[in-house]
Amino acid sequence: MQREVLKQALIVSCQPVPGGPMDNTEMVTGFALAALNAGATALRIESIAYLRAVRAATNAPIVGIIKRDLPDTAVRITPWLSDAEALADAGADIVAFDATDRPRPASIQDLTRVVKARAKLVMADCSCLDDARAALAAGVDFVGTTLSGYVGGPEPSEPDLALIEAMRRLTPFVIAEGCIRTTDQAAAAVRAGAYAVVVGSAITRTEHVTAWFRAAVDAANAKAGAAGQGVLAIDIGGTKILAALVENGQVTREELVPTNRDEGPDAWIASIAERVRDWRGEFDRVAVAATGLITNGYWSALNPVTLGIPQDYPLADRLAKTFGAPAFAANDAQAAAWGEHRFGAGEGQDVVFLTISTGIGGGVVINGKPLLGLGGHFGLLRGPSQGASPLEDEVSGRWIAAEAGRAGHPVDTPLVFAAARGGEAWATDILTRSARKVALLCQDIQLMFDPKRIVVGGGIGLATGYLDLVRAQLPQLQPRLLPTLVAAKLGSHAGVVGVADLALTER
After folding, report:
1. Which regions of the chain are under pLDDT 50?
2. Which among 151, 242, 264, 427 counts the fewest CB atoms within 10 Å?
3. How many domains does the chain have?
4. Are 468 and 409 part of one and the same domain?
């Protein structure tokens, strides 16, 4: 067999838990054939008996090993010369052995020699870069990361991507093996330079995989139990404040109060506390989503025109003291992005959320993680105005109403939309100019983050006809560059639903 057969290969290690219900010839052969049918290129098989059984069932490449627990050495993968010879004779195309720098029954050079004498390839299971150097000097064909983290210290839980990269600088024939439990980890190993990837327990050890899922379910249940009956979630916006009781992504109670911009956050919190005083006992934590910048529970305005607040206002601390419960705070659009990702139009995919209302806010969820801090504050971009003002000052509801006044129609934003629906050219022109800049923003977002979809929400974004107007302003682009725009599903609840869930997952 030539080494190139394993280029870009997925190798499935069919090694049952010793003494387990699947530790028999029929099960190992079944695992091997199922893996090959699903697209595996090669197999890694332990023991002469299992190797012979699998070889009788398939001509696919096999990496053969024998494991022994010996009293005088920690080396246990193919430790003896007779083991290497037996594997080659039983049908292994590649013989793998422990190549670590530890006291050993047979040298790496001798193991390599006896395998090559039988015209088979050699794989060295290494723990570090020095192991790989020594093995390559002895003439092995492949080096693997199999034993990284297994020669002392706590057992690893992640693949050693750094070792893959380092080995790749020595040879192209690097096989990634060890702690590869997810598709993302397998892909990361390829990106690190792996010639082939071995996956074992995650595919063929049902006991291990079940234990991983059991631990995850137990942890989630414990977290859900700690959440009590619900979360008091509060969304503080430039024109209104929504307080809601949220349980498992559902709003069960809510109160809406106007934002008196002249009073300030102390008064807003007091007003909310008064409105929900009879909710006591129905929640044991508080979560707040607010426009502006939230850093470690402290709140600052990024655009005071949208909502002016004191710099570094201790929002989480004030809420905790007011309601007597732990408090979590996040930007409102980032919270809404998470809500739509988890429970709404994002459908669990990479998503950018864009809220167009009094101002413009945004949030980004990539690889299942919310981007917090400054990430997603698209309304503050100044490119469209050549640095003169934030984008939201030329797009949002405040701008629409101001433009109507300048056009000789002193009406609020809802009446501008009504006038456009009635065919008034001045109103249509204002909304079209707003939509054109949002369309340009969406094109830029697609290039920056490549989300599966851009979810649009907010009072303006969800106003009748606005999203269609934005789509109409998108140029004729090739499909790969064209953003997919969808309306938010959670509506005004996106922020409270998202921040309630973040309060449970980000603490």
Report:
1. 227
2. 264
3. 3
4. yes
